[in-house]
User: Fold these one by one.
Assistant:
Number 1:
Amino acid sequence: MDSTVSTKSLLELVAQWCRENVKAKDVDEAEEIAQLVGRQVAGVVAQVSIGELDEKDTAPASRIDCECGRRAEYKVKRARGIATLCGPVTVVRAYYYCPHCKRGYTPWDRRQGLDQHQWTASVKALVAEVAGCLTYQETVRLLKRTCDLGVQVRSAEQIVQQVGVRLRAQQSAVRSQVMAGEAVPFIGPPPDRFYIGMDAGKALIDEQWHDVKVGALWTSKPGRDGLDTCDRTWYTAAQEKAEGFGERVYAQAVQCGANQAGERIVIGDGADWIWNLADEHWPEATQIVDYFHACEHIHDLAKVHYGEGNENGKRWAKEHCDRLKEAGPDGLLRALRRMKPHTEAQREAVRLQLHYFTNHRPRMMYHEFRARRLMIGSGPVEAACKTVIGCRLKRAGMRWSRDGADAVLAIRCEVLNQDYDHIAIASKLAA
């Protein structure tokens, strides 16, 4: 609409038409009629508006540049149907053919973000967003029920694959810029603290269970007890080697303001790859081993040394978990050195835990971290594994190809991050 006056006139016409033609017997019927009329009107608006766009192609150039470097010749006007959010629309546009490379072109399609499939970019974006949250079957049913959009399961899979691949290409481009120091600077109030967490979950991909790495990034705010709690959270995930994933997480963190934060904190379990990446990308950050993960190691040792279910072992584990939080790992390390294991299994368990707690000692100064009001648990990261992987890739009976899983992961993270513009751009074919 060009003005509020024309909009008002249209609404007055609609109101008058309703008074003359609509006689609903109850609220349910009134809503049903309103939806039906709204869809029909939207279809007319879409057909006329898009028709005016293709009419601008009435005087096409006789030749255009071809991708092969030669010239493609104008041949004829061709009609095609496209599926929009408002229903099917027919357009007529110029068709060109290159006699050298034997390829045909419809420049109007490219300008409008259309490819060989019938769906508009807006339809693709909506399908991708919903499929990032629901199964393909649920996506198809929901879109039909709420939008009267008839998409087949196979088409939804193709759309997700296409959009996911383009999202990954966008992310790779941004990552290259960030790693080269050429990224657009973060604009916004700098966060006081910025947390980086990394972990891995399992998904059934190519008929085998594979690790999928997940990154959770969050800013914090004081909780009721004064300790940090999550404020704004971002996610990223991929099935890739640690080196590439480290760059992925770093690029995401830079975009979210990590470099402008007053303090950076990396939280994770005892996996070496996490701390290697932390040293590489955030060498000045405070590193914290998840407190509850450390406590699991204490309880595991107690089961081996005292026996499964032994009350003395339970008491010993609880005391040292409490002391670990209150005074750090030094007391536990002394206790481990004093232990007198009797079996080979006990000796190996003590050796492993002594190495674990010695190696991570600087990351377990929980009394100091709590004095600084820092989080000491990686709950947001473990929740990310469930939110990103479990809720979408690990539902009953799900099996994935590597490409199919990666496309869904790319889209799901954008949806969870509420970066819908990224999905919209990926849904539109570059001209």
Note: The two ends are 26 Å apart (CA to CA).
Number 2:
Amino acid sequence: MTRITFFAAIGLASVLSLTAIPTRAQSAAALPGVDATKTHQTCRPGARIDPTQIAERAALPASAPAMLVKLAEDGDLRAQRRLARLYEKGIGVEANVALAVRYWRMAEAAGDQGARYKLARALLGGNGVAPEPAEARRLLRLGVAEGRVSSMATLARSLETGTGGPVDLVEAMRLYETAAASEHAYARYRLALMLSDPDGIAPDLFRAVALLRVGEAEGHRGARYKLARMLLDGQGVEPDPQEAHRLLCLGVEAGHIASTAALARAIELGRIDSADPREALTFYEYAAAKGHSYSRYRLALALADEHSIAPDWARARALLEALSDEGYPAAPFALAEMLMQSRPGPADRAIALELWHSEALAGNGRALARLARNFPNDYVRLLQTALTDRGYYRHRRSGYLTNATIRSITAFCLDNGISDVCRLGPMKSASARAISEMLGPVRF
């Protein structure tokens, strides 16, 4: 009988878990008539995941060897680097960023450039350790001064996002350009994203596409995904839905969840071939099972639709409630919409009112329009509050559309150039949306 070692068995089980379609309650198998193993034109989620990604974790026993620890504590640079890597990756030991940082500090103090870069990244993000953004940027600038392209790319990202200090998009782009010229894949990708932003400091869609094509040819997943999106939308290039499909499918098979969600949406809308809601649900289910918020949201909308292939109101509500609790921006409005379908009871009406009211206060014009249609007194009271704050209304906030309220709304609309819309009537959805756009967030 063939013997299988303990670690080999773990590796085999991990490979199977990575490549299998989810079978839990949120899997595609839970949908009537949906075959989770059948996907768009033989595109199978996770089919290309590399099993070697998990092999290294079984390389060492459960604790770091005492001799390696002693050598590192005694100043051995190689031991310090090795221990830092073990604790960073959780290879044979429980992952512990704080311990990884401890040994990176030792190695950096001895002049190790790689340790300096790793330490800077850890201190910049604060993932598992207290962030030290100023120190992180200092260390990265030392690397930049030495011509290290990885330090250039990471410092550029920090400057682009404001992580660890003020935003400086001009300097960020300059660093990306320098690192990209040295064939740094991530810098080239980030540069392409900056160039593809029509509202950015130097938009250049054609160059962005060219850079993304280089990244895609080298197997960069982010570049492949962004290029596919631009091919679908015709940004900087002629629309090519078939090539976009090929690229997204490669991402799906490599386990890239954003590609899975994008392909699902394209299939749902019929942007590649004819619309296929059943196939789209299969991909949404897979990505949702991996925790992808947008996919969970799109899945919830499909399940909430009584005309969909597999309506499930209770599950849709649970998904939207969870997303709302997690702060997903579109979920509260969608949850309120769902609750108000088909003669809601008092409890669901109260929840919908609270959700729409909060969204309206945050400046959501659609939510304010829903209040006008479904909860007119609350809508009027909110307008009275907002117009009081802006000096247009000086009466009791009764929630009734009094003459004084109408006069204050008319004056506000006139001053903000939306009188033509407001003439439709303050309770009309178009008027409510226009007023909301001018009001912005409402303060109490």
Note: Residues 57 and 91 are 4 Å apart (CA to CA).
